[in-house]
Design the sequence.
């Protein structure tokens, strides 16, 4: 066990996401402005040419009939003014760099390599687990999370502190909440799944966590590993030196790395709440996992499954939901079988269900760090697809799914990242994947 509890590091100079602490003051909400002062004391670092505070009010779309959900038309329910960063600058205050760029002026490009977790050396594993422990126990300086027991009433919204890892876990939970339209919840729609935004949303979220850990530790070489689950007969990384074994109740072995972790936002997955346990009332449940015990998910996807999914050349197809056929996204996400025509659980979804416990409760699944290894591999498959079809932002389909249209800003990130703009080679975001195993890639 790592004795990191007491030392409070902060995530300095943070980048992409919400809610930036300086934008949760009364004044920020009153003026609907999220243009924090950068080091040079100007909003969005404008005096240093990093960006500008932009008023987006005039660009509001009009096709949304009656907007009730705070996330629609992101982030304009909260802010009319947000930073627009120039060139290689990024971050909610333009104080950070675009992915893959480093240095005070963000002019230094760097490529990191994401490796299979079993490829890591002893020292690299130690580094991974201590950074994750730090991320789980370090109060995030730049971001807070939103909590309420009643989404209908804005005056009940509260912004509370969370650790860096919990901010990440919360982002997934927040993006997945059912959409509230005209006072009615639509349980089958959300902003990160069941539509064309799925692979890009998760790519951006992993990039966020990776970058925040780099900033927190000062280690620019840190890369999130992946778990290549193709053809696995059991969860071979569920050992105590890696992700941890579990007992019959699913509780992780006390001698494994994540046994002390608790799940933020657990137990309150009703639609009208946003994470009411995010404050210090530690009623949160421990992580649990039960790999291979769910009767309808006894096997993980095979090499052939992945090859077949990669044969689907359209990123997504109408009706852009769980019913889409011949859709790479729907097969990768796993509502569609790798054959492209049978609607059944497979691929990404199958892994969540196979692992059981926290991972099988999708809204809070991001609490289990095996989530990031899983999604890093899903991203590797996405990267294979991008390379095979030479995909680009133009490959992102026109559609009318709320929050998943090509030009929608991805929820809940700052500054705006458009859904279509994530369809680029990973090297443009500063990372690539190792070749693992003798099966080609
Ligand atoms: C942005 O980064 C690239 C490297 O990717 C560098 O060549 C370029 O000069 C940078 N642009 C600015 C404006 O600093
Ligand atoms: C919203 O709901 C109300 C009452 O349920 C209904 O009368 C109204 O037509 C709905 N508006 C829209 C735009 O769907
Ligand atoms: C996976 O299966 C192998 C071979 O059957 C076995 O040796 C290993 O202990 C199992 N690992 C886990 C984590 O169950
Ligand atoms: C997908 O969308 C179509 C057309 O709107 C609808 O008929 C179908 O029920 C939807 N499927 C799911 C699983 O939501």
Sequence:
């Amino acid at each position: 066990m790592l004795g990191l509890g007491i030392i409070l590091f902060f995530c300095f100079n943070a980048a992409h996401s919400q809610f930036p602490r300086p934008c949760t003051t009364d004044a920020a909400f009153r003026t609907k402005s999220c243009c924090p002062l950068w080091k040079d004391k100007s909003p969005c670092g404008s005096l240093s040419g990093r960006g500008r505070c932009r008023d987006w009010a005039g660009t509001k779309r009009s096709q949304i009939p009656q907007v009730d959900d705070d996330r629609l038309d992101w982030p304009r329910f909260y802010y009319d003014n947000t930073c627009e960063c120039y060139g290689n600058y990024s971050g909610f205050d333009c104080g950070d760099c675009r992915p893959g760029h480093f240095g005070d002026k963000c002019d230094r490009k760097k490529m990191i390599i994401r490796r299979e977790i079993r490829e890591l050396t002893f020292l690299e594993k130690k580094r991974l687990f201590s950074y994750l422990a730090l991320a789980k126990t370090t109060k995030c300086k730049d971001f807070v999370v939103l909590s309420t027991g009643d989404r209908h009433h804005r005056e009940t919204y509260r912004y509370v502190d969370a650790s860096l890892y919990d901010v990440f876990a919360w982002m997934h939970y927040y993006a997945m909440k059912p959409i509230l339209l005209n006072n009615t919840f639509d349980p089958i729609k959300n902003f990160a799944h069941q539509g064309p935004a799925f692979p890009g949303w998760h790519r951006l979220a992993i990039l966020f966590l990776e970058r925040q850990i780099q900033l927190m530790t000062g280690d620019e070489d840190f890369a999130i590993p992946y778990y290549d689950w193709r053809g696995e007969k059991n969860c071979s990384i569920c050992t105590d030196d890696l992700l941890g074994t579990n007992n019959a109740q699913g509780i992780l072995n006390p001698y494994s790395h994540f046994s002390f972790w608790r799940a933020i936002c657990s137990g309150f997955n009703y639609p009208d709440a946003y994470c009411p346990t995010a404050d210090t009332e530690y009623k949160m449940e421990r992580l649990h996992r039960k790999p291979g015990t769910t009767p309808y998910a006894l096997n993980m996807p095979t090499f052939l499954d992945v090859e077949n999914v990669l044969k689907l050349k359209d990123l997504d197809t109408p009706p852009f939901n769980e019913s889409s056929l011949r859709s790479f996204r729907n097969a990768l996400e796993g509502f569609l079988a790798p054959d492209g025509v049978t609607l059944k659980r497979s691929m990404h979804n199958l892994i969540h269900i196979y692992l059981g416990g926290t991972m099988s409760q999708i809204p809070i699944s991001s609490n289990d760090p095996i989530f990031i290894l899983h999604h890093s591999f899903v991203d590797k498959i996405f990267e294979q697809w991008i390379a095979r079809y030479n995909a680009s932002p133009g490959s992102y389909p026109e559609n009318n799914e709320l929050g998943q249209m090509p030009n929608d800003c991805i929820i809940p990130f700052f500054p705006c990242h458009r859904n279509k703009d994530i369809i680029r080679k990973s090297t443009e975001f500063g990372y690539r994947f190792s070749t693992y195993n003798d099966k080609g890639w």
About this structure: Residues 188, 319, 321-323 surround 2-acetamido-2-deoxy-beta-D-glucopyranose (ligand 4) (CB under 6 Å). The longest helix spans residues 198-217. The two ends are 35 Å apart (CA to CA). The chain has one domain: 6-433.
